[in-house]
Request: fold
Amino acid sequence: MRKKSRGGPRTITRLVLAMAIAASVATAMFAGAPPNLLDDNRGDGLLAGIESAAFNLAINVAGFIVDPLTFTYPPVVVSGRVLEHPKIHNLYLDDDWNANNPDAPTKEQIDAFTQELASSGYLSAAAQYGVGSAEFTGSHERSIVCAPLQPVFDHAEFVEVMAWVTCMVGFNPIPAPGVFPPLSGVPSPDNDSVYVVYLPRSVQILENPCSSGIKGYHFFGAAPDFDIILPVSQTFAFVVVPTACANGATPQEILNSITNAATHEIVEAATDPLVGTGWINNSIVTDVHGNFFEQLIGSLSNIPSDLKAGEAADICEASGTMTGPPAFQHPTPAIPIPTANPLLGGSFLVAAYWSNQQNACAPFVPKTTLSLGSPSFPPGFVTSSTVLTINAVDGGSGLGVASISFRVYPEGTTPPAFTTVAAPATFSLSGSDGRYTVDMFATGNNGMVEVSHSSTVTLDNSAPVITITSPTATEYPHSATLTLNYSATDGTGSGVASINGSLDGSSTLAGHGLDSGQTISLLLELALGPHSFRVDSADHVTNASTKAVTFTIVVTAESIKQDVAIFVAAGKIWDPGLATALLSKLNSAAEARAKGNCNQAASIYQSFINQLQAQSGVGVDPTAAAIMIADAQYLIAHCP
Reply:
């Protein structure tokens, strides 16, 4: 149900309707005023007059002027100023935030976020709009003195929240409103104040309930400020963050959702000079004295005009729909800001906002990238001779990068301290082979710091390991067939890039290569005696290795018999009778050799040689004859 408060009707419809009616009257009153040449919207006196008239009528209708808890000195002048040095103060609409909101970030976490935000460079790009450095002035939970105005049940109306904030920052009736600080203990407002109201997890905004994501808003109010000469009213900015709309599977995700929403509204409260007129840009207010307020009256809301003009964070909102002109959507994801505060989990998310100077979305966070020199191989293999370079860009600010911080350590070990140098940072790896983590971040000249991120590189100083299975360091009979069998492995390294075999210094033999699996007929392709087989291999980062084996080709009494069979099969012995005669001699020589009668064996082998010499070119191929003659001569020379 809706609640009616002490000061009168508390609905957004009535408040905005009152502002709309007042605006239409004021438009007529100021119609003859000359247009201003604007540096920004703050110079538009006509618009300020319209807004002032509308606001004064609205707070009168809502009962703010007569309610002692929301009392203000009329008239309130709405100047449309930006916050030159935002003073951020958190207000929790709860008596015991931590106890009553167990699934929300704690009060300490939200305060820590606000402190980190104020000390970061988040608002640096807003300097173009006149916004300077910020400060965090503390926080308060709701005060009992303002209890009559606080929203009840599970909803909060726009005017209820505004009345409660007005009470919290202004109520002190003695001796006159505004003479002493508020009884709530909240700092009194000035031209730089912005109060951020965090609604409990159980409370939604009645006029804008949670439908998807988190929806906040910002507006302005007025509180009594008793000047020495005369009483006046001090306007102030305030932001409302409905934490009930924050989504997330983890506490960190909920915290990020809230910080993203809060910063969205804080930066707009700081930069939006007049509510509903958009961000500070000369082109935004071209028709504000015309159909702007006609739309306002027709819709009873300034939302259509906001979407048309585009407030600073709205323009950059990832899910926005502005299609311009003048405000075109520039979807930009929330930006992480690093923090060493353990309450915040290493970083918090902030909303991007529009920068006219860069024609892009701020804050402009520097970005580091790691590049690998040569040799290197994807996805990150390097050697100790590889130069690694970390460079950075300023993210769009145009102010440049102040420094790069980095550290390198074996994966899984304790990280060392960061080393900070001017960009670019260059280094190389040393130590044992394996995976190394490179953590890096950059700091911009605009004060923004990148969240540290990591890359992994693998140091590989080890060459492939070569295995030669065949040939082996042994003696092979000349009649044998040799099948090459070798391989190389690189373990956890970059992998084998090349592996090549060579025989006696040559990469080919008899017109073919020497790949693993290649067969070699020793009788037809290699001469008797020693031979060297070598394998060379390299990995993808040029680590190279070599392995060689020496084997010897010999002749035996049995292998020379195989010579004859091989040449018969190859059609190299044309006369079948010759083959029979040759084998008969070889059998006799083998018997004599086996008995140790080398002279007799040599005589028979010589007869074998003589017959081949006589038949060379006649009954046997000359090349085959020469090979068998050499084998027989070997047996004569090598008799046991």
The chain has 14 helices and 30 strands. Confidence is low (pLDDT under 50) at residues 1-41, 282-308. The chain has four domains: 12-342, 367-459, 465-554, 557-637. The longest strand covers residues 231-242.
